Amino acid sequence: MPITDILKKNADFYPADTALIEINPTHENQGRMTWREYSLIEANPSQAYRKEITWSQFNKNANRTANLLLSRGIKKGDKVAILLMNCIEWLPIYFGVLKTGALAVPLNYRYSSDEIKYCLDLADADVIIFGPEFIGRVEEICDRCPKVKMWLYVGGDCPTFAESHEQLVKYASSKNPEVELTDDDFGAIYFSSGTTGFPKAILHKHRSLMHAAMTEQAHHSQTKDDVFLCIPPLYHTGAKMHWFGSFIMGGKAVLLKGIKPEWILKAVSEEKCSIVWLLVPWAQDILDAIERGEINPEDYELGQWRLMHIGAQPVPPSLIKRWKKYFPNHAYDTNYGLSESIGPGCVHLGVENEHKVGAIGKAGFGWETKIVDGNRNEVAKGEVGELAVKGPGVMTEYYKDEKSTKEVLEDGWLFTGDMAQEDKDGFIYLVDRKKDVIISGGENLYPVQIEDYLRKCDKISDVAVIGLPDARLGEIATAIIQVKEGMEMTEAEVEDFCSALPRYKRPRKVIFADVPRNPTGKIEKPVLRKKYCGESVVAQQNEIQEG
After folding, report:
1. Which CATH class is domain 4-258?
2. What's the average model confidence in pLDDT over 508-513?
3. Domain 307-433 adopts which CATH fold?
4. Which pTM value belongs to this model?
5. Higher pLDDT among residues 323 and 443, named by residue
6. How far apart are CA 295 and CA 273, in angstroms?
7. Residue 414: which region, alpha, beta or left (left: phi > 0; alpha: psi -120 to 50)?
8. Domain residue limits, the chain
9. Order of strands across the sheet that contains 252-256
């Protein structure tokens, strides 16, 4: 069953029930009103504190987007890119794209203009739907993307180079489009990247999307009465696929546009949220704020909050022990997944296995796992090898990249590039990654991109960027800089030079030292990791073995 059938079912069964709520804490003074109420006043709807739509409205809005696209010649197999911040329009637009038979292509909102162009070209995008935050970046490339035949803008004051999505959908039909979809039809392209920093286009069928929903619901037993709080970006598979578990049950979701601890607890309290998916930094921020006396959990209505789960990066066991101290009645779970395996759930801990905190868990619903050596032969329990997963959510391929596809797919198995070991009870622990990607606060950082930028500095002879352990972010980007002979350089100079980089890409730590390279000229990053984070890695290994 295609995932779009679930939306139609919810609209048929629960037409007047609330489906989506958007909370924008920075505009709380606007008061609480429904999206319908707010649309009737002469103001910018984007400034509302709270908006909501019913399942009927959700489905009709999706249908209007679908019928608009169909009227412009978009057909099954075409590609529609989505470049939006989290907002109440995001998911109806996404489902509208799916209803046409076209592929939804969500884009990372942190992409530069050149990265946006690269992804549009790689995915063969026919349309891009973008929001006000991206006008400048999109305008820079709009005359350099000849394949894109439609630039749709979501928001007020539509730029001259685009068309207003809001105005056009007013005249589009709200009826379900007559496009037949099957599980074997392609549904979406998500973007990932290797250590080179060049995004790969990950091709998924509708079967993958539906299996993600089934897996999430099987793991966390969502009901119609559950309320899911969604904070992470919807362009990522993680947030959306976790929501899918509530979606198939007709439960409501709250989109919170902010990560401050008091905003999270207030949203949980006011909207009666029962399931919250957090990143490690956000959970830690909540605990730190409690311990500093800045917030008091007793000031909020949190009794209905039943599940806190975390993904996107390794979870320190000490964090969960602290969490249970303040929230002893919360069930806890951690989830492991990749965009290549349609996000979270191919491995998960399970709420019944809190005694194994530190592990990523066992194979998820409908999934298989194995750990293999360099020849892809299974290793014995306790030995370190590469984690491989197999199931209905594995990608079809890296779009237009046969070589990379063959490197990671074999007989239905996806070789993740993550090094892991399995304990005597069958629980899997991540040990390291074959790739050099740094995961900082749930976001991927690509060392080569940062290294290439730093090498433009006249004072730098060589540079290597690695991830060092960090209690809050999981890892931080650390630049080992080799200064040119006869020159001197300070950390302040490095920070100033990197000011043109997006903030999340800037190195958070700088070490001035020689950069070791092997005889073939490759940076010996294992040597650097052993030198600068060896003690932390040893401590982590001990914690794993004790777990």
Report:
1. alpha beta
2. 95
3. Luciferase; domain 3 (2.30.38)
4. 0.82
5. 323
6. 18
7. beta
8. 4-258, 307-433, 438-546
9. 50-54, 18-23, 252-256, 227-230, 275-278, 307-311, 331-338, 343-348, 362-363
